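Ops channel
N.P.: pipeline sanity check, posting one input/output pair.
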């Protein structure tokens, strides 16, 4: 019996059995073009996903903690001081006031926002989305913080006048003169601020201008009088101080006016005036335009050359698949080699640091460049490997068909596989880098590292008696900025006292509280003696509303507005409730906070959700009470869920971690970290709010209780570096959680 002939899966492809010399040349050129085109597609896609992507720069800055290092390393570097002082010459508040409260004047969130504006402006210009480069810095947030800082410091001096209808203008004038003298001598001035009549403004202007060279007084007078007429002593001082301090400083005043024009700083003009060659960016923009054209051309050439390889191939579909795969894989390998050569060729940097730069700046720039190169290489390898994997898949498929011909499908199916895999590999090399490339990490409570931590694993800087502020003219304030500014500067939990306005009889009883100094008792008693009847409504007070009060509902509205403007932040309120729970619930709903309120689990033993889960839910306002427990499900008694340390320390040496309210086994831990000795002690706060002092106590209490501290409650949150200590606690916990 003769053997039956083997069936052929499909008719042989047309074409000669052996390629001619011309065909070999065409195939060789097509192979080289295909590999080079794939290489070009991968590299241009990498550049667009990194150098031209705002997320790339934001990711580099975040991973190197650039914003934190600005405060902890760069601004405190002695070699940076001359540059810092030159920059501060543009600001309408004396240098000492700014530098001692830099995180209030220029909070990290503001720095991030300003930086993001410039990153987007630059990348939009390079990509051709905008026709002109405009690096305009919106300094309105900075100016608002400066104004608030000035108001705080000025208000401190005249807090004892808050209930007077007519201020002591003679004292105001004397204090203003003393402040100017202090400024001339290089000391931080203590400036008063008071609403002035037109006549008073003119008289104050005389005081200010008396220290200005006579030839310049008349030119400055109108601006000074207008500023003083609206109580803006900071601007009046900025206008006159430069002329009073040094010869030739009139230029600084002109620079100030230019810088603050309309609340916008035209950084482009400033850079150009300083001698920077901005034409470099214009040339870079032109290259980017050519890069886009090159990417399109490379994609077309890759498809065309691969099509030529297919149509000029011989030996059946399997060998053609292998030829396509080899070209793709070769292009991917070349791209990987080119990307890996980036580090040795560039030395891991794009910018040479100058020997004259301060060490802190050099270190930060070097770390940023190293991180940028690492991310660029990782993104490039992703694109290269996409092409390589596609090529290997095509080659392996063709080889499998050669080894087992009976499994080979019909020619139409083979051509479909070839076209599909080829297009997918090219599309991957083109699109994977932008999709999977570096981007700014998601942030929770100001940090990308905290998103996966639970609420009960995170530490929150807590303002003790947050409503009792210098800004709101409380007698014996325990904080300086108002509540919104506290939130801006990193506070994430507020201890608030809710009250009805008291009668004189109530006050007499409350004045026995040892928190009040004799001077405070005298001031409050004087307030009782004047015609000052009780006021309707709900208030935030510190023991006695006549010692200072702000309305509850408007304050809650401000907190809600801040939360909506900061959608990745969580705020906690711990309420010392002297009003009923039903009144509190009504106040929160009147303030429009219903959709922001988080409802804790009924069982205090249950783990809390992660910060990411709370932010995604939109329920980012947690409210506890010291007395009440409901009836609203979101209004829970703190001591069911939390425990605390004692709080009646009269000196730092008395501080302990002993159990107080809430026992010892709760999930949340409140560290009361303030000294009360006849009122809040600003001087002691300067000691105990120091980063190392606070960290040592927090870690000791954590070890003693076996639980992480969640709320670090301090007086004067802007004194010392309590925020830095809290951030260090959180950084350590995030590292442990990885």
């Amino acid at each position: 019996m003769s053997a039956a002939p083997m069936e052929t899966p499909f008719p042989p492809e047309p074409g000669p059995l052996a390629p001619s010399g011309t065909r070999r040349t065409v195939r060789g050129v097509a192979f080289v073009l295909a590999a080079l085109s794939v290489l070009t597609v991968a590299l241009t896609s990498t550049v667009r996903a990194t150098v031209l992507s705002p997320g790339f720069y934001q990711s580099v800055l975040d991973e190197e903690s650039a914003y934190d290092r600005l405060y902890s390393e760069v601004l405190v570097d002695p070699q940076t001081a001359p540059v810092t002082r030159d920059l501060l010459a543009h600001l309408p508040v004396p240098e000492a006031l700014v530098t001692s409260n830099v995180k209030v004047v220029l909070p990290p969130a503001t720095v991030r926002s300003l930086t993001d504006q410039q990153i987007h402006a630059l990348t939009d210009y390079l990509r051709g989305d905008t026709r002109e480069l405009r690096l305009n810095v919106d300094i309105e947030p900075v100016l608002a913080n400066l104004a608030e800082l000035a108001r705080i410091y000025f208000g401190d001096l005249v807090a004892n006048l808050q209930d007077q209808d007519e201020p002591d203008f003679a004292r105001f004038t004397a204090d203003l003169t003393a402040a100017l003298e202090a400024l001339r001598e290089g000391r931080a001035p203590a400036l008063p601020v008071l609403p002035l009549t037109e006549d008073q403004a003119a008289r104050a202007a005389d005081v200010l201008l008396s220290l200005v060279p006579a030839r310049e007084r008349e030119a400055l007078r109108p601006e000074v009088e207008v500023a003083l007429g609206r109580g803006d002593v900071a601007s009046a001082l900025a206008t006159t101080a430069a002329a009073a301090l040094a010869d030739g400083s009139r230029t600084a005043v002109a620079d100030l006016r230019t810088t603050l024009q309309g609340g916008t700083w035209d950084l482009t003009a400033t850079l150009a005036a300083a001698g920077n060659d901005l034409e470099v960016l214009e040339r870079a923009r032109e290259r980017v335009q050519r890069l886009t054209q090159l990417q399109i051309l490379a994609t077309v050439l890759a498809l065309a050359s691969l099509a030529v390889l297919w149509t000029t191939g011989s030996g059946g579909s399997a060998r053609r698949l292998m030829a396509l795969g080899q070209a793709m894989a070769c292009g991917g390998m070349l791209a990987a080699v080119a990307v890996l050569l980036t580090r040795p060729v560039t030395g891991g940097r794009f910018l040479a640091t100058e020997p004259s730069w301060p060490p802190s700046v050099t270190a930060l720039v070097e770390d940023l460049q190293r991180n940028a190169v690492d991310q660029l290489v990782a993104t490039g390898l992703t694109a290269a490997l996409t092409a390589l994997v596609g090529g290997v898949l095509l080659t392996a498929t063709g080889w499998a068909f050669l080894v087992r011909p009976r499994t080979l499908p019909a020619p139409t199916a083979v051509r479909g596989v070839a076209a599909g895999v080829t297009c997918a590999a090219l599309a991957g090399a083109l699109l994977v880098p932008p999709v999977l490339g570096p981007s700014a990490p998601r942030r929770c409570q100001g940090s990308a590292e905290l998103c996966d931590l639970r609420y009960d694993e995170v530490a929150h800087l807590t303002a003790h008696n947050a409503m009792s502020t210098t800004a709101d003219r409380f007698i014996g304030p325990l904080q300086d900025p108002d509540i919104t500014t506290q939130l801006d500067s990193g506070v994430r939990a507020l201890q608030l006292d809710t009250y009805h306005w008291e009668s004189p009889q109530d006050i007499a009883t409350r004045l026995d509280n040892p928190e009040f100094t004799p001077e405070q008792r005298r001031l409050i008693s004087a307030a009782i003696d004047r015609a000052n009847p009780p006021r309707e409504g709900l208030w935030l007070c510190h023991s006695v509303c006549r010692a200072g009060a702000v309305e509850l509902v408007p304050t809650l509205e401000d907190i809600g507005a801040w939360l909506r403007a900061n959608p990745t932040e969580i705020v906690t309120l711990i309420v010392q409730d002297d009003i009923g729970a039903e009144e509190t619930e009504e106040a929160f709903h009147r303030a429009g906070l219903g959709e922001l309120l988080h409802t804790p689990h009924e069982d205090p033993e249950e783990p809390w959700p992660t910060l990411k889960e709370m932010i995604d839910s939109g329920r980012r306002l947690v409210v506890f009470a010291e007395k009440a427990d409901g009836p609203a499900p979101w209004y829970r008694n703190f001591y069911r869920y939390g425990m605390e340390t004692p709080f009646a320390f009269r000196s730092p040496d008395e501080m302990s971690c002993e159990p107080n309210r809430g026992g010892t086994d709760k999930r949340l831990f409140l560290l009361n970290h303030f000294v009360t000795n006849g009122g809040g002690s600003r001087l002691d706060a300067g000691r105990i709010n120091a980063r190392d002092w606070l960290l040592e106590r927090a870690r000791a209490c954590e070890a003693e209780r076996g639980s992480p501290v969640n709320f670090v409650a301090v007086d004067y949150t802007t004194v010392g570096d309590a925020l830095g200590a809290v951030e260090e606690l959180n950084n350590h916990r995030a590292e442990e959680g990885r």
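N.P.: looks fine end to end. The mean pLDDT is 76.
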